[in-house]
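FORM 12-B: Structure-to-Sequence Request
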């Protein structure tokens, strides 16, 4: 009698243990499936981002009138932004100085050659005791040139009764830009392969040979 009871109890324990193991396996399979789905989603996003070309270029400079704040060892704070710079000019607190500020940009070009520009904040990189020297440096870092660039083409868009014309140019950097044009320029450029433009070359302060050319207008 006891043996039969023990046998039934043993079978019940085995059955419950088997059910528990089956439930655990099912849970593992479900978690694995969720993990695979998440990985495939992340993989899709990565593949999409991989089609974008990203480059960082020098974008702009400016000269700003500033004031020397606190002196910290061989450094100084520059007001009003409280930037920290080397005190190369041996300035005293309260001295008026001029500073060179720099901005760079992240250029994102997608598979369709559409550009997105993400600008950085201004960074103070150098101080000057007089405005003339600061301006001379600025003029060497931002150089205006006239040159011919490739004309990708011109096209028209129309909305209701309004028509707009555009020219697509390829800059020396390889980036393409779209510029609005009037009817007269549209006719002049309709069959052209190149066009004369005014560019502003912005050079990297730390590496002068590295530069980015920005469209600044038509040469004629």
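FORM 12-B RESPONSE
SEQUENCE OUT:
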């Amino acid at each position: 009698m006891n043996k039969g009871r023990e046998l039934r109890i043993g079978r019940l324990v085995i059955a419950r243990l088997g059910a528990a193991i089956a439930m655990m396996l099912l849970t593992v399979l479900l978690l694995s499936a969720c993990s695979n789905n998440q990985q495939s989603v992340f993989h899709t996003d990565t593949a999409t981002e991989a089609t974008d070309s990203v480059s960082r270029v020098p974008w702009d400079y400016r000269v700003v009138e500033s004031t020397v704040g606190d002196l910290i060892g061989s450094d100084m704070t520059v007001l009003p932004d409280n930037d920290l710079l080397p005190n190369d000019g041996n300035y005293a607190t309260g001295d008026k100085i001029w500073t060179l500020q720099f901005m760079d940009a992240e250029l994102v070009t997608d598979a369709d050659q559409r550009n997105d520009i993400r600008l950085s904040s201004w960074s103070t990189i150098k101080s000057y005791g007089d405005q003339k020297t600061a301006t001379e440096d600025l003029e060497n870092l931002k150089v205006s040139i006239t040159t011919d660039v490739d004309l990708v083409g011109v096209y028209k868009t129309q909305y209701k009764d309004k028509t707009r014309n555009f020219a697509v140019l390829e800059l020396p950097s390889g980036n393409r830009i779209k510029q609005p044009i009037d009817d007269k320029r549209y006719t002049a450029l309709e069959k052209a392969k190149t066009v004369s433009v005014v560019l502003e070359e912005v050079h990297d302060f730390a590496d002068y040979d590295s530069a980015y050319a920005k469209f600044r207008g038509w040469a004629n």
